Amino acid sequence: MFVNRRDVQIQWGDCDPANIVYYPRYFAMFDDSTSTLFEVAGFSKQDLVRKYGLVGIPMVDTRSRFYIPSTYGDWITIETKIESIKRSSFEVKHNVYKGEALAIEGFETRVLVGRDPDNPDRLKSAPFPPEMVAKFTGS
Question: Which UniProt keywords apply (predicted)?
């Protein structure tokens, strides 16, 4: 499995009045981490649009389990990988570490989408290109 890790410092604006990260901020971090995963794997946003004719990789489901809070100034490491790939949808997992401890597990279901060839004003799911499958799964 292809895995990307990135370190993130918790900012003042990430925190609520109790000085812990306001949970929706993690979902923004997860979105950035998924984009970064594709970029680091060699599939930039420009590649998705130009080479594969995709419009994006929207999220259709998300959830998290929170174990350890983080506060302003903390450093966390977000480890992101694609756990499974179907025809056009895929499952992303984010493990967030605070030091060595698992602080959060985040889960996303996303879909590759492009323009519908029969009606370019509409979007349609698109199959995962084989080279992307190979890169993310190691097969």
Answer: Hydrolase
Strand partners, 89: 111
Instruction: Give the CATH number of domain 3-137; options: 3.50.30.20, 3.10.129.10, 3.40.50.150, 3.30.2130.10.
Output: 3.10.129.10
Residue 102 CA to residue 115 CA, distance in Å, equals 39
Beta bridge partners of 78: 6, 96
pTM for this prediction: 0.93
- Write the Ramachandran bin of 87: left for phi over 0, alpha for psi from -120 to 50, otherwise beta: alpha
**How far apart, in Å, do the first and last CA atoms of the chain sit?**
9
- Measured CA distances, 132 to 2, 25, 61 (Å): 11, 28, 21
pLDDT at 91: 98
Q: Is residue 83 pLDDT above 90, yes or no?
A: yes
Identify the pLDDT of residue 45.
87
